Amino acid sequence: MTNQIYKAVPSQLPRLIELWESSIRASHHFLSEEDIGFYRELIRTYLPLMDVYCIDENGAAIGFAGLSEGMLEALFVHPGYTGKGIGKQLLLFAVHEKGIRRVDVNEQNQQALSFYEHFGFTIIGRSELDPSGRPYPILMLQLGEEEIQM
Asked: What's the CA gap between 87 and 85, in Å, rounded?
């Protein structure tokens, strides 16, 4: 599946936050309801500050990547579309078109870690706390000099 990637517009933010939440609930089983509410407010604040690129199907966003300062800050795919190449397409766009070489991932999210490692990212650091100071260890990943393939 190859869909066109385009830059998000502000009117899409509510849909992207819904997509983020459905993806988080499907993949971040280690988060409590309180945590999800906390991070929902953060994503509402920070998503508009990122360069956000989307993939749609039938006019509705099914995946997005948020980029900031040379990093992939967010990559989320609607749970109904996981395993269909949407995340891969967004990642390859971020790497090849936007020069992204770094991403951080929750240590407990083994599926995401495996995804990035599959494309050549390696762990270069670890933080015991996430950037909000919560006890969710973060792994810092970096892509080597080799190019990942389409």
From this structure: 6
CA dihedral of 26, 32, 33, 38, whole degrees rounded to 10:
-100
CA–CA separation, 107 and 126 (whole Å): 9
CA distance linking residue 17 with residue 23, whole number of Å: 10
* Tens digits of residue pLDDT in 13-70: 999 999 999 999 999 999 999 999 999 999 999 999 999 999 999 888 999 999 998 8
pTM above threshold 0.90 = yes
Q: Domain residue spans in the chain?
A: 5-143
CATH architecture of 5-143: 3-Layer(aba) Sandwich (3.40)
